[in-house]
Amino acid sequence: MHQVSTEYRSFVIRQAKDNFPIQIFNKENFPYNECTLVYAISSENPNDLRNILPFFSKVNILHHFNLIRRLGIKAALYKIPVSGKAQETEIGG
To answer: Cα dist. 18→12, 60, 68 in Å?
Structure first.
């Protein structure tokens, strides 16, 4: 198995153990096929992310989707719509 894949799988298992201590997770029984890694991107643009992302961002996301899918994990892209501008608040002033 590729080194990065082994390290990432170990990271995922550690996170699962920390967040779900009652479950018993290890490399042999981890339900990778039941997991979905979601890339969430916020945008004020109302159009589809596939149409508004820059070319190299699309290439990068596709590359990472392929790596994640090789691990047996599903990958998804989600757009977080942004409505309105955030206001800066001065702290301690």
So the answer is: 10, 29, 21
User: Taking the CB of residue 73, how many other CB atoms lie within 10 A of it?
Assistant: 20
Question: Quick one: tokens of 70?
Answer: 């090789």
Cα dihedral 18, 21, 26, 31 sign: negative
Residue 82 to residue 44: CA distance in whole angstroms: 5
- 39-76 pLDDT, tens per residue? 999 999 999 998 999 999 999 999 999 988 888 889 99
Share of the chain above pLDDT 90, in %: 35
| Beta strands per DSSP E along the chain | 36-43, 74-81
Q: Show the tokens assigned to 26.
A: 């290890």
Using CA atoms, how far apart are residues 82 and 52, in angstroms rounded to an integer? 14
| DSSP type of residue 29 | T
